[in-house]
Specification:
heterodimer, A: mainly alpha, B: mainly alpha, 3 helices, about 85% helix
Amino acid sequence: MSFISIPFFIFLPVTLLIYWLVPNKFRWIVLLIASYVFYGFLNYWLIGLILLTTLASYLGARGIEKFAKWKKLFLILTLIVCLGSLFVFKYLDFTLSSFGKLFSMWGLNVSLQPLNLILPVGISFYTFQTIGYVVDVYKGKIEAERHIGYYALFVSFFPQLVAGPIEPAAKLLPELRKEHHLDFDGFGEGLKYVVSGFIKKVLIADFLSQYVNFIYGDLAIRGGAEIILATFVFGIVIYCDFSGYSEIAVGLAKWMGIDLSKNFDRPYLSSSFKEFWRRWHISLNRFFAEYIYIPLGGSKKGRVRKYLAIFLVFLLSGLWHGASLHFVIWGVVSGLFLIIEDLLSTPLGKIKINVTAKRILGIVIIYIVINLCWIFFRVQSIEEIGLVFQKIFTGFASSFSTTFFVTTNIIMILLVLAVLPLTYYLPEIKKEGTHVYVNVALYTLLILIVSVAYINNLMEVGESSFIYFQF
Amino acid sequence: MELLAYPINLSILLGSLLFFILARFIKKASLPLALLGIVCLVLFTVNSFLLGIPHLEIIIALTILAIVVLLILLIRRREEK
C-alpha cells in the first residue's frame, strides 16, 4: 500500500482509531497487524519474506548473545539469510545476465535465463535495518530484543517499512516500547510533516515528473539542452519525492507518539560534497558510515585506505539503489567527486576568499554537479548514458520542445519553484501566540491544495508511486 | 485562465485572504476571523469544482494564497525574534 493510494486513506484512520482506543500494552499488536496488512496489501507472499528475515535476525541476535563462543557463526548465518534473500530477489537476475554477457563475449554458449522475480518493495530498507541490529548486538552496543512481537514491529513498522528512514535499533526499539499518550501537540507536529510531505510529493514531484518523463521517455529525438533542463528538474523531483515520503513517514509516526529520524536536511544548500552526503538520505549514509566506512578504517588509516573505503561505500550505495550498471556508475562518479574534493581541499583552502562568497560559490557548484550526476541515476540503461552525452556534446540545441510550457503550466512551474523553499520552513512554524488560528487556516489551505492536486493527478495520470519504492 | 471569468468566485478567495490578514492583526477576534476565512476557502474550492474550472487553475489560486499566508506567518516569526 502506498501513502498516496486510496486504500491508505481508509487504512490510516482505522489503524489510528484502534491504536488509541486499545490500552498501551496491546498497541504493539495493533501496529504489527496493521504493518503486515499494509505490506501484504501489495502482495500477500511478501509477508512470508519479511517473516523469514525477522525470524532469522531475531534468532541470530539471541544466539549471538547466548553463545558468546559461537557469536561469529551466528552473525555469518544471519547475514547469509538476510543478504541472501536480498540477493536472490534484487540481484540474481542482474548477476545472471552479467555472466551471460561475459560468457558470450568469451564465445561460450552458456544459457543463463533471468528468473524475472518480482522485487519485494522495501526489501533493501528492512534488510539493512535488521543487519544494523544484528551487528550492533554482535558488537555489544545493544542487548538482543527478547520480545519477538516488538522485534517484528521494529522490522515492519509501516510508516518507515518500504522507504525508510533506516532506523538504528537503539533508537526505534525504545520508541516502540515506551508508553504513548494521545498528545494534540504531537498530533499537530505530525500534521506539519504530513502536509509538507504531501505538498512535496503530490504538488511538486508528481507535477514536475511529467516533464522529466516526457523528455527522458524518448531521448533519441531530444536536444542536449532540454535533457540538461529535464535533469535539473529531476533533481527537484527526486528530492521532493523521497524527502516527501520521509516527512510523511515521520509525521505518521508522530501521530502514534513515535519519533523517527530526519532523513533529509536541506541538502541542496550544501557547499561541499561531504556536507551534501551528510544531509541527503541521512539514515542510509549513516548506515554505510557506521557499518562499512568506519570498520574499513575510515579516515584514520591513511589517505589510500580512506579513499578506497569511500570508493567502496559509494559503489555499494549505487548497487543498493538498483541492480543495474547505471546505478553503479552513479555511485562511482559520486564517490570520485568526494575523493577529488578531499584531494583539492588543502590547495583550495589556501585561497583567500570572503566566507559568504565561498559558501555561495560552493552551493552553486555542488548544486550543478550533483544535478548533472542525476543523469546516471535517471537513465534506464547504460546505452542511454552514451546517448545523453552524445546529445549534450553534438546536438545541444538540435531540438527544444515547448509542448509542456503552456501558460497554465508555466505559472504552475513558477509557483512550484516558490513553494519549494517555503516547504523548508513549514515544519518549523511553531504553535505560538494568537496567530495559532492563522496556522490552522494555513494548514486547511494546504490540505485543500493537496486534495485538489491529488484528484487532478488521479484523473490525469492515474495513481503514482514513490521513486524509492523500486529500491 | 477560466478562473478569471468568475469574479464572484474569485472574490470569495480574496475574502478569505482578507479574513486571514485580519485574524493575524485583530488578536481578540482571531478565531472567528480565521474560521470565516476557512469557510470561504472551502466554499471557493467546492464552487470552482462545480463551475468546472480546470484543477490546475484552482491549485494555482490556492497555492498563491498559501504562499501569502505562509509569508505573513514567517514575517511575524521574524518580528517575534
